[in-house]
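Late entry, written up from scratch paper. The run itself happened at the end of the previous shift, but nothing got recorded in the book at the time, so transcribing now.
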Amino acid sequence: MSQPLAILAPGLLCDARLFEPILDVFQEHNYETHLVTHHLDDSLEGIVARLRDEVDNDREVLLVGLSMGGYIVLEAFFSNIGIPKGLVLLNTNARADRDDQKETRRRLMEQSTMGRFTGVTKKLAPMFLSEKNLKNKELVDVIIGMGEAIGQEGYVRQQTAIMNRQDRRQDLPSIEVPTLIMVGEEDQITPPKVAREMHGLIPDSKLVEVPECGHLVPLEVPELCKAELANLMKKIA
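Output as recorded:
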């Protein structure tokens, strides 16, 4: 039997660097890893269709997603990508965008075409990091670098996919695999209340609310993230 596969789906303006601090925990539990390509398609369906071509139907998978990546892994789960054995939802939610949120995204996409695209600027960093972690220059540099790497065209495709996603709350009670939900107490983008909502709807789920943490759990609290992932992988082994 082939090794189980951890499918890692990054968030908006994030790349492989998002998961680098936690990769060793998958190796320790004999998982291969596969990074989702999420900047070349402008719909979740397109992203998941690309993923389907890369994952064998009979491969056991652990679906791990942060923020936009959470939307992707929920779509992958309900699209029967591989054989899901577990689900990890980091700094995300199951709701669709409201009309005002869609309008904000349209405005941001329009602004992204004006001048040099820089992704996440130092001015925007407080939206992603806790007050404590905002003082970590190395961490700030990583999120700025990830945004620049995705680029303006990738950013527009990602925003388009996000704003057209469907509300998955009605589907959550049908999730039967063990699910880990983590959120930072200082997450301004997907606050703890939406994590609690998912926890209340997914039967076999564990919720971890992290003090002094913002929107990027794997980067901000990698050791805690690895410990919780290890517990989940032991549970589904």
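The radius of gyration is 17 Å.
(Scratch paper discarded after transcription.)
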